[in-house]
Amino acid sequence: MLHRSPILSALLAATALSGSLASGEARAQDQQVRLDEIAVEAVRAGPQGTVTGAGVATSQNSSATSGGGGGPSGVTGYTARVSPTATKTNTPLIETPQSVTVVTREQLNDRNVQDVNQALAYVPGTSTNVFGFDPRFDAFYIRGFSATYDGIFRDGLRQSAVGLAVPRIEPYGTEALTILRGPASGLYGLGSPGGIVDITTKRPVFAPFGEVWFQAGNYNRFQGNFDFGGPVEGSNGTMAYRMTGVVRQSDTFLPGASDDRVNIAPAFTWKPSADTTLTILTEFQNSRLPGTAAFYNAPNFRVTRLYQGDPGFNAFTQQQYRIGYAFEHKFTPDLIFRQNFRFYGVDGDFPYTQIDNVVGLTAQRSGGFFRESLQSVALDNQLEGHFRTGPVAHTVVGGVDYIHYDWTRRFGFPTVPDLDLTGVSDFTRFRYRTFIPRPALDSGATQSQDQIGVYLQEQAKWERFVLTLTGRHDWVSQSTTSFANSGPVTGSTQNDSAFSYRLGLNYLLTPDFVPYASYATTFSPQLGTDANGRPFKAATGDQIEAGVKVAIPNTNITGSFSGFDIVQSSILRQDPNNFANQVATGSIESKGFEAEMTANFAPGTNVTLAFTHLDVRFLRQTSFVTQAPIDGNALSGIPGNTISAFGTYQFPAGSWLSGLQIGGGVRYAGTSFADDENTVRNPTVTLFDALVAYDFAALDPKYKGFRAQVNAFNVFNRDYATCQAGFCYRGAPATVIGSLIYRW
């Protein structure tokens, strides 16, 4: 482990003594049935939960109370008490030895989230605006590390992504997002050292329900959502179904670029007994997106309003599909077996154009066309046991998981004519369309990867101490072949193996005030060879984290504070003796602290606050621009300080504004460097969001279930750009979406 800052070490030690709140059991806010807290386990006992009223019953919470991808439970408003992501068990979040945030369905609905980046916008430790507005990918950073390719999980299984074949998540089809910050290799194997996002799919519930959304917004946005289901008639309460879908047709502020989508996700649950559950999850999604989201960059880090995409060659079409299941059987209350499986496929055509240079009144352009396909299989087998040895209570979970993917790419580069800019004085109104024939796809590559992991975790609880010990060994095999211009095929094979682990200790100072500390390691294989033809060794890393988790007794108010130090080593850098090659000797350090508070004060009244201080620097690295060392430089595009807050207020029944809900949020991103050479800084950016909604049942009970909602993002239309690694991206302008919702 590399040397760490003594200042941070002091901070980490201090966190064990810090904090100002304490927690207790969530209080029931009403005695009626709340639809968004019906659990699958309630099949024969009837629906259970607390009510918030028709205007706030925002979705069906179908999360199973068991671990293994079942999703968060103990949800009230924006708060959640349990999520299996951190431990693959039902350990309360306050007793887990890492930072965890849950974005619940009610929060997703209130903010009318349209993609994963929006879902994470109010989560501490995340950087979601590094690449500006880009509807093509869920691209974000956690604690300064990219999570796009190896940090996204779906129902506890890693979502493989390679090249341009990156599966997109439809937020309306999700029940919740759980963000586990810090290394997760001890349980999940390959993953971002900054953390992972585990997305829980909506699942069937054993109570009839339904909702439809009709939406319209600026940029000719029209969208319909539907979600309905319940028990299968005649099944005697053993079967349930769910059908969720989205249909969208929309332009964007990128000239001539679409953001169209069709998504449908049927699901089915069979529960023959209280001890056995099988849930089948499926999805098909078709998207039409822009081939590029970039604007031409002028010298000196100036992003112009000249859009690089040509509407005649800019339709990125992608189809994705998945089918899988979640199986659980309880041999006894203390011995549980789970098996989660998923097959995923992604196919896409990716045409694009780019402006390489502007000379006089001529824009010189180039382009490319990529056709990619990705098929992935993921399987996780778990066995969880509970037992005691004297005064110590043990929760042990062990398992074997397997992930395989096959990826193919074929590509070619067309001849793209130059663009005549004569007479153009306002690029915001400049429109053009060029006929560009598709090129021959005479180059390509294929890649396959197999990962097998064996893991074991012990959680031992003795009096006020909770000790978490997690260990895992992975074997990864990866083979790649490529050819160019229909030439000879070249190939390589690489094998890696590594042991990852986590040590964590929580101390229940009170049941609601819990200091903790943990140490965790991570690894990630790296494709390629050095100048001598030797494969790169896997990137490895570790994290020290300490903090305190709290909640106020008899309320739904929770909070946490954490300090962390992550070092990732053996990352690729330019070979100082051969600039045409790379060596795996670079390293990077991310350190800082995070604070958050989440509260549900009353039905429809919630608040979430987050603060992050982040310092991400290269310990050893070489500039790809100057070929000079940039040791000690900050990683570009990652804000040093971020502050976010979002809240809603539901006017109570009986008031003259009964039925009205208002809300708003602020997102502040501090300054960051625009390039890794640290020559120019990005300015600070503050954005505001807003919510206004009305429940028509307040006018007359016969309108029960009808709700109107208006969401605005970047309300004041802040014009901003962010630069990362020397390239600048435009942020999204003001966006307004109106929704008419009916629930039954």
Automatic annotation (TrEMBL):
Subcellular location: Cell outer membrane
Domain of life the protein comes from: Bacteria
Signal sequence, renumbered to the chain: 1-28
Region of interest (Disordered), residue spans: 49-77
Domain TonB-dependent receptor-like beta-barrel: 270-715
Domain TonB-dependent receptor plug: residue ranges: 93-196
Recorded topology in the membrane: Multi-pass membrane protein
Keyword ATP-binding: no
Main subcellular localisation: membrane
Keyword list, A-Z: Cell outer membrane, Ion transport, Iron, Iron transport, Membrane, Receptor, Signal, TonB box, Transmembrane, Transmembrane beta strand, Transport
Entries under CDD domains matching the protein: ligand_gated_channel
A matching Pfam family: TonB_dep_Rec_b-barrel
Family: Belongs to the TonB-dependent receptor family.
Stored PANTHER family: FERRICHROME IRON RECEPTOR-RELATED, FERRICHROME OUTER MEMBRANE TRANSPORTER_PHAGE RECEPTOR
Name of this protein: Iron complex outermembrane receptor protein
Species of the source: Methylobacterium aerolatum
